[in-house]
């Protein structure tokens, strides 16, 4: 379908003596992003336009002159769909459709459409359907009162019965309740999976970031997985988890989550909360940023705002967040070198290229260091009756040396965190303990 993208730019407003900008994003980057969103669902964008809005109209958002100008462009380009990169009220959407004689969808509707195309698992489909129904519920405009029943209730003087719009709302609400129940069951299943993972306490590392920041490419680079990774907004939607080994042999679980975006619809934040709980549970969060994007700072602010909405405040994020400055391969040599030097001097930043692999080894080392905490060094000798502990030790400790003794016992030089040292104490406490030749 041929589509036209309209980006309304609301002027700054003054509140309490202070001037507030309506958006932190540049109009050009908003137009580029909105065009990318439209192309992500195979729309043919024939025109894109930035429209300054000095005084938003309650009925149409845009002024009369601009509406007429866009109408002429629609007829000229034979465009039957208009994407308005701004939230529209139901009345504004209906009035614009009448004026332009074309289908109109706002930013929320477009993102919902993309999510509907991308969802592939049962949970993802349920979440998108639920968000879509909640969105539709607010879109029912009272435009067909002629379908009102003439009489309702008991008695001769009964008033008007249930209108068509009320019937539609009731049907939507019934469907919403059914989806919420189905989603609750899926959430319970996910919680059971989390409980099983806690029994084998591998640390969880979650990837977050603005959509198209390169999370899935980095995920594939680190784990060797085959997750879809394309230069496309919201190329992946459903969360993916994989086990991986850090440089010193420790096993962790890496989680790739849905990409964030500015002005993410509240329906989606609520619907995808179960999925995003993987981020809340994570021991370490990798915030992947596209440093080749001129708006990367504004994108970073949007991501941190959503993390805050999920319950991760700045203080907590500072303790368990690493910024991954991705796509440095796209930068000019001078900018590239300066950025790598700046990242090297920062305590919680690693510069990488998920495509070329540059900096990925340093990132893995930093993940290992952050998850290790205070390391305990020890040398233990496992007798024959305790050799069943070997797989656990190789999964949870760093084995620096091993010696197989003649009596069948094994001597191991280990480094492990305080938590794992305590767990090792517990595991070797049942029955004869291994001899400890050096325990710090």
Automatic annotation (TrEMBL):
Residues 10-31, 421-440 are annotated as: Disordered. Residues 162-196 form a coiled coil. Residues 203-375 form the Hflx-type G domain. Transmembrane segments: none annotated. Signal peptide: none annotated. Keywords: Coiled coil, Cytoplasm, GTP-binding, Magnesium, Metal-binding, Nucleotide-binding. CDD domains: HflX (cd01878). GTP binds at residues 209-216, 234-238, 256-259, 326-329. Its cofactor is Mg(2+). GO terms for cellular component: cytoplasm. Mg(2+) binds at residues 216, 236. Pfam families: GTP-bdg_M, GTP-bdg_N, HflX_C, MMR_HSR1. It is found in: Cytoplasm. One of its GO terms (molecular function) is GTP binding. Residues 15-26 have a biased composition (Polar residues). GTPase that associates with the 50S ribosomal subunit and may have a role during protein synthesis or ribosome biogenesis. Belongs to the TRAFAC class OBG-HflX-like GTPase superfamily. HflX GTPase family. Monomer. Associates with the 50S ribosomal subunit. This is GTPase HflX.
């Amino acid at each position: 379908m041929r589509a036209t993208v309209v980006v309304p730019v609301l002027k700054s407003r003054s509140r309490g003596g202070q001037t507030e900008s309506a958006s932190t994003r540049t109009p050009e980057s908003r137009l580029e992003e909105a065009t990318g969103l439209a192309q992500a669902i195979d729309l043919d964008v024939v025109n894109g336009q930035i429209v300054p809005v000095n005084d938003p109209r309650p009925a149409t958002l845009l002024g009369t002159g601009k509406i007429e100008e866009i109408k002429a462009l629609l007829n000229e380009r034979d465009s039957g769909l208009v994407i308005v990169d701004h939230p529209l009220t139901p009345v504004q959407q209906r009035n614009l459709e009448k004026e332009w004689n074309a289908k109109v969808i706002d930013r929320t509707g477009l993102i919902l459409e993309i999510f509907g195309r991308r969802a592939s698992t049962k949970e993802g489909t349920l979440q998108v359907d639920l968000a879509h129904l909640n969105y539709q519920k607010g879109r029912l405009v009272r435009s067909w009162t002629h379908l009102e029943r003439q009489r309702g209730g008991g008695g001769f003087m009964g008033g008007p019965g249930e209108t068509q719009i009320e019937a539609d709302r009731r049907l939507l609400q019934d469907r919403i309740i059914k989806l919420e129940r189905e989603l609750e069951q899926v959430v319970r299943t996910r919680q059971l999976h989390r409980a099983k993972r806690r029994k084998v306490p591998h640390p969880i590392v979650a990837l977050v970031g603005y959509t198209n920041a390169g999370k899935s490419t980095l995920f594939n680079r680190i784990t060797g997985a085959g997750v879809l990774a394309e230069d496309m907004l919201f190329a992946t939607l459903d969360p993916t988890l994989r086990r991986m080994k850090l440089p010193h042999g420790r096993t962790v679980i890496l989680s790739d989550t849905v990409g964030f975006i500015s002005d993410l619809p509240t329906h989606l934040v609520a619907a995808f909360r179960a999925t995003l709980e993987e981020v809340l549970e994570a021991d370490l969060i990798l915030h992947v940023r596209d440093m080749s994007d001129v708006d990367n700072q504004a994108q970073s602010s949007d991501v941190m705002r959503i993390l805050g909405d999920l319950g991760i405040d700045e203080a907590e994020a500072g303790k368990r967040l690493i910024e991954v400055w991705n796509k440095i391969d796209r930068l000019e040599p001078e900018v590239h070198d300066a950025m790598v030097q700046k990242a090297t001097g920062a305590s919680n930043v690693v510069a990488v290229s998920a495509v070329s692999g540059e900096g990925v080894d340093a990132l893995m080392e930093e993940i290992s260091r952050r998850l290790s905490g205070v390391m305990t060094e020890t040398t233990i000798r496992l007798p024959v009756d305790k050799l069943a502990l070997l797989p656990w030790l190789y999964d949870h400790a760093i084995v620096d040396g091993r010696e197989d003794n003649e009596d069948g016992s094994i001597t191991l030089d280990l480094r492990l965190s305080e938590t794992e040292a305590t767990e090792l104490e517990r595991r070797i406490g049942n029955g004869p303990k291994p001899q400890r030749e050096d325990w710090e």
